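Self-study notes.
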Amino acid sequence: MKRKFLTILISAILCISMSACNKSTGKNSKQTKNETNKTETVQDDTARRFEDLGIEFSLPNKWKNKAENIDAYATAPEENIEGQVIVSFILDETMEKARKLNEEASKIPETDKEEIKKAAAEIMDLTNEFKELWTVVSIDKSKKEGKVQKDLFSKYENKDLIGKEGSLEFYLLYNNKPDTNGLSERSKKDYEEIYGGIKEFKSLIKIFKPVTEQEKLSKHKKFEFKTKTLDGKEIDSSIFKDSKLTMVNIWATYCSPCIAEMPDIEKLYEEVKDENINVIGLVSDTPDVDNEELAKKILSKKGVTFANIIPDEKIMNNILNDVSGVPTTFFVDSEGNIIGEFVVGSKNKDEYMKEIQDRLKSIK
């Protein structure tokens, strides 16, 4: 799901213009995977947990003043590799470049679509300056070793087995020395210091049985809330009784696939509302004053007329606590019971319509 530091910076740029956000990537694309999959924090604000891969790690105490320089993201399954967690170091110079580019981009007129796209691309290009530290990889031993694993393992001098879970084996991959070519003396010192802490890092990696998105979400049987809409109106789960089925679309202001699918969801809403079927949005990165204002602008520009709600404490501590990525969509009956599985990733109007029809069959 979804690089944390640059994602925060680039989200503002992507949402300056809805045309920049409107690049539909499709739920199976690499871009969507990177944008929607989030790293879950546990124990402290430097810990990272990847539940669907069964990998968790904390940072050594001596690194904590450099926590924002440590980037970690997960890749999608490929051949016999269930996934990789790639850990990198972000140079201070790179972070400064990103801040300056973001500052300059915020001054671009909303109407200058080409300049906005160019600015977003320049910031994303900065990920090429990230310096890899090491990789934690999950291998499914029940599958034949593929070319991807062979190529991956050939890049590293050390392939340390750090744990097993069922048919899965977990390896820490790293080289003996970092590549410091082209770095300033300051960045070289920081990078070498962190790179040299591999043994401490290794001792802080925890391996556990992976938990899939559907496994996490399947424990939720009912959706209840008492909150407000983005427009400030009181709303609670009693609204479900007015419809035979309600589609709940969880999205975030930083998620371009979420924003890209909004016109289709609005068309869907217009088609089904006369059939006693409702649609509501749930803005996952609220309550937050700035994000609420941004969400209103996004909904206005996308022509969305269905209600969008701000999560209350009950929503935050239940469903949102187990949602690893957005968009995620689910359906409830007139009593608020969740019907069928959660839908992870974006879909078009016809695909959502099929999800609705399938669930209507089960509640007749």
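Second protein, same conventions, sequence then structure:
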Amino acid sequence: MTFISILLALLIEQLKPLRADNPIYTQIQHLADKIEASFNAGTVKHGRLGWWLVVGLLTIPTALIYWLCLRLSPFAALAWNVLIVYLTLGFRRYSHYFTSIQLALSSGDEEAARRFLAEWTHLDTSDMDVSEISRLTVERALMATHRNVFGVFFWFLMPVGPACAVMYRVAEYLARAWTEPEHMQDEAFGQYATKVFYWIDWVPARLTAVAFAVVGNFEDAVYSWRNYADRWKDEVVGIILSAGGGALGVRLGEPEEKAMILQADASAVDIDSLDLESQPGTEATPRALQSAVGLVWRALLLWMLLLALLSFAVWI
């Protein structure tokens, strides 16, 4: 049932992608904002209470409905699984940005590529060259694929899969919504959301990195993972992007590394001695976007193959 649920949800999403501003997501965002406004007293314990309240309000009904569907018939449970996977997956949700950037770069329209990238990342892209645009697009695509697809896959395989998939997506959203906005960056309220999502995403992130290595350049992916993952401030981001960059043969994250090092202690560091160019791969180019698409699709097929084999083993 798990394999069929994911397969049907993927097929439906290919035909009818769910928009990022759909009503269900909007209501969840309003709920998270309301809980934050009501519980945020500037302490970690209030953030913990708010996190459990939001997650509980969304996962417990999902689990109860799944249990009722199982009691009714396997087909009702299948339908509920497909609906939840469709709502939690995001394979096509942000692909229009990626495709628009890819087409703009292919036609030589760098200004349009910067505009699309700025809409996607909410960063200032006005001074970025083609290499930086390509690099950031690949980085955002790899991370979006992990958090909107592979992370959901992993948790959907757990007992009470629909509730676990909802839990993963809600935890991922709260980790962003309660820490990334400028007024929340120094707040203790969001620290628990960040910490708990780190552990929720610990295994899925490493499985995603392994998948990228298996379907890409295995040797460079593993080498980059072992030697360069710690250059990112976020460990999970470092693991996925270092492995993904190695698998693609593209260097990712280096301008950010230099900026972080210089901001930390500009007077004590000789930037020319850091040997940042030793990371395997070449500078990102528009062709790297097409390579990233191939890597993601191959990784998706690998996940589906393993899931099919697991389902077959359970049936026999």
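Instructor comment on the second fold: The first helix runs from residue 2 to 15.
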